[in-house]
Structures are given as C-alpha cells and as structure tokens.
C-alpha cells in the first residue's frame, strides 16, 4: 500500500514509520511515498529527505477555509496515488469532508489512552488528573477529534516526580512501537472499519 504521512514537527513517529517500512523482515505491507508538512523547516521534513521520500510543505496561510486547505491536501495525496494516510503529529484538525473521504484509510497516533485525555496536551492532562497509568493510542480518524475506532494501545506508567517532558518521552517510545504496528494491520487488511464505526478483524 502507498502511504502519505502528514506532520507538523520533529517527526519521531514518522521516523519510526520510515524505519519499519524500510525493514523488509517486518513485512509492513506499506511504502511511504509522500510526506506533507504544514510547517516549513521542521525536523520531520529532513528525516523524509534523508530517506529519499518526496516532501511537500503546504502552509495554511493562503487558504480561505479549512475545507479549501484539505482539498489541496487531498489532491496531492491523490496525485501520489496514496492509499493510506498517517497523521504523525499533524497539528491541524481535518474537515469532516476530508475525514469522511478517507474513512478507514486515515490513522492517527495520540499520546494518551483514548477515550481519556482527548485533544492537545494529553500528557499534561494525565498529570493533572493524577492517573498512574497513561499511554498512547493508534486509531482510525473520524470527524470528531480523537474519536475514531481504536486499533492499538500501549500503556505507560506515570512515576512519582514525572514531568510533562519525561512523560512525553516515555509515551513516544511506546508510540514508535504501536504506530508502525497499526499501519501494518491496516496495510495488510487485518483490520478494517465497519459501517457502524467498529473494527472488523481478520487476524
Ligand atoms: C506525538 O506525541 C503524537 O502522539 C502527537 O504528536 C506528537 C508528534 O511527535 N500526535 P513527533 O513529531 O512524531 O516526534
């Protein structure tokens, strides 16, 4: 399957996806053919360039609406014949039109155990709630933010003295494991989304 990855920043999850898809022994069933960032000069773009993956920067500045921006995204993904889109730290909400069109082909990684701590600063939310376990979630994306069907999760303990920074780093280690795994499940069609927004497994 041909994969497009959308990023906004450091791209450590993108790196995990690159490493996994380049590792022939893992049979991820996917090849990253395009990386799009909404921010220029970010580290994630350099990671893609180092791996010889085509990159593109689409800044939101020149677009009148979210829908207009997303139509451009969609057009670029189509022109690279992308089958699956991975959101790897893409810090923009996608329009209902886009998420509907890519339903079942659009996956995101979120730094909490959904449905807890949706939205931004999930690690800070976990610390403020005082939970002793948090983690990360790979899920299909639906129009509602962080609300799609869950594909994979991994837990991470919240230790005494944990800070937002230390927790973020620990969660990233777990993200780098489950995001490539979730991509593999989708790319090899071991998991699909049903009409009721529930998963259909064929393991
Ligand atoms: C990750 O923590 C991910 O869960 C969130 O954004 C962060 C992206 O980090 N959606 P990176 O750019 O992959 O390093």
UniProtKB/TrEMBL annotation:
Protein family according to the UniProt entry: In the N-terminal section; belongs to the GARS family.
Protein's name according to its UniProt entry: Trifunctional purine biosynthetic protein adenosine-3
Coiled-coil regions, chain positions: none
Source species, domain of life: Eukaryota
Organism: Henosepilachna vigintioctopunctata
Taxonomic path: Eukaryota, Metazoa, Ecdysozoa, Arthropoda, Hexapoda
């Amino acid at each position: 399957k041909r994969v497009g990855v959308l990023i906004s920043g450091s791209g450590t999850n993108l790196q995990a996806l690159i490493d996994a898809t380049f590792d022939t022994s893992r049979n991820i069933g996917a090849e990253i053919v395009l990386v799009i960032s909404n921010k220029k000069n970010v580290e994630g773009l350099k990671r893609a360039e180092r791996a010889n993956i085509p990159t593109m920067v689409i800044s939101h500045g020149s677009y009148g609406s979210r829908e207009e921006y997303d139509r451009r995204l969609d057009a670029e993904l189509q022109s690279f014949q992308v089958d699956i889109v991975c959101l790897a730290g893409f810090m923009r909400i996608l329009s209902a039109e886009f998420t509907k069109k890519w339903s079942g082909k659009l996956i995101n990684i979120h730094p909490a155990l959904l449905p807890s701590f949706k939205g931004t600063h999930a690690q800070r939310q976990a610390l403020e709630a005082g939970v002793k376990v948090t983690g990360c979630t790979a899920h299909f994306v639906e129009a509602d933010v962080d609300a799609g069907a869950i594909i994979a999760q991994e837990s991470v303990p919240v230790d005494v003295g944990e800070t937002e920074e230390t927790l973020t780093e620990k969660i990233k280690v777990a993200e780098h494991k489950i995001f490539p795994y979730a991509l593999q499940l989708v790319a090899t069609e071991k998991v699909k989304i049903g009409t009721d927004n529930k998963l259909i497994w064929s393991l």
